[in-house]
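Posting for a labmate who doesn't have an account.
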Amino acid sequence: MKFKNIQHVYFDLDHTLWDFDKNSALTFEAIFKEEKINIELQDFLGAYVPINSNYWELYRNNQISKESLRTGRLKDSFKLLKFKIPSKTLDVLSDKYIEFLPTFIHLLEDTQDILEYLQPRYQLHIITNGFQEVQTTKMVNSNIFDYFSTITTSEEAGVKKPHPHIFDRALRKSKALPNNSIMIGDNYAADIVGAKNAGLETVFFDYYQKKEVSESITIQKLKELRVYL
């Protein structure tokens, strides 16, 4: 069953097209080596990944600042592992993480193929809560920037997904209407509920098999979008 009347396809970036987990792990590996942080990477990631996810939820809900997110997730991870680290070093790691992260270019499975398939048929766009200074660089370095007509970030919009204003701003930028637009993303609350509230069609990308109760069409591989678009 293909969606009818769709002209504009909006994607989330991290965890939907760009392989955030793999690229983040490689980033930590590089900056720990450079800063001579003697900690097992897998031990650190085991602590960091859920802490980072929680911090992003707080950030999305405007409960913490961008700076609190950037440093707090590191501080709490080292604290959980009982690894003593000076505050100055935390600041260095925080800065280097943002600097190094977009230099890694791994994409999720089928990303390039599905973008090649969709681009001649639709106008493609990005709506992201990620930091403005790194999202474009990620896309350029991983060779997907040219597939997209517009990129809308939460910092530019002044609000984060799922706030309807970020979707409204993205629609205005691309001269699109909600009823001819669709949002594809991995975060059910931010991407799917947010887009539905703004009047867009949705596809929930359950790549991480969260198996959330969904009122949206759900896929687990990007190539499944061919069935619907």
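Reply:
Got it, the structure tokens are right above this. DSSP finds ten helices and six strands in the chain.
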